[in-house]
Amino acid sequence: MSTPYFDAIQLIERLHRYFLDVVKVELDRKGIQDINNVQAMILYNIGHDEMTVGELTLRGYYLGSNVSYNVKKMGENGYIEQERSVHDKRSIRVKLSAKGKETYKLLADMFHKHEDKIKGTELSDDRMLEAIKTMKMFERFWTSQSQFTGLASLDDDE
Question: What DSSP state is assigned to residue 92?
């Protein structure tokens, strides 16, 4: 039996996969074979910042991925530079290399092209803002359900 709640969950998951497919097609179109779509999105989220792997994990939501593994592969392929923190030797800071910055620009250009193509369609800014508002409500709900007090509250409906 399908419900709006279950349909929304499936749609969110499907949209995420479609988006990663779009990123993969763009990488393939540019002949980039040494980074995958998830790694490209991690790279994009690093952007112009320098951060630890832990900060990167908290900042992004990398479904089904091991951020440490992906960061290691991105370093091996020359997309990021890694260095131990001066203040905490256990912590490794990452930032984009020149190659990573080129790929960042490629992704930023792709996003800008998408934004231009969306203009004039039914995907107006107002509609997207409303969708974002709805997704943030899901985020708050799921966050509350994954916390101990949230789980207990499911039984408190009586």
Answer: E
